[in-house]
Protein: Acetyltransferase
Organism: Secundilactobacillus collinoides
Amino acid sequence: MTMTEHEKLLAGQEYNYLDPELQTMMANTKKDLATINDGKTSLDVRNTTIKHMLGASGTDDAVGDNFAILYGAHTKIGDNVFINSNVTFQDSNLITLGDRVVIAPDTKLYCGKHAINANARFGTRPDGSRYLTTYTSPISIGDDVWIGGNVTVTGGVHIGNNVIIGAGAVVVSDIPDNVIAAGVPAKVIKPLKPLN
């Protein structure tokens, strides 16, 4: 059975981002984002639109101004999640946030990636035209996580429960439970007492 481009995307395989299904999903999300980021939208309409746009959302969630997301449907957030201003979710794969996650301004979560070998970054279509090859990996963030300002999290990363990620960090590998991690690339710098 042949996989759809959407199925390939979620499986982390090379996919065609110009596929009509994917383009329609992104266009619908852009419309929702226009409503969410319009300062004149009522809080009720804004919250309803966020719940409609995301794959799943919990209770008492808050999303700040200038929120950007690619598909929306690939993102699931738990209860009491706070996403501050100017945050970007490049959810070309699944992004999952647990309960009580706090994300500071200017943070970016990027599921997409390209080949390290420059010769492999572009493919060739049957008609001879070139296209950028993209692969994706999911991002998961546990419960009780605080991500500081201007953090970047890359695809394939799992951040455990009860974690603080220091401002400006670039998270390229998994972070275990009950720690503070910081730096470029982010490394564990201090343990945290486990939550009861």
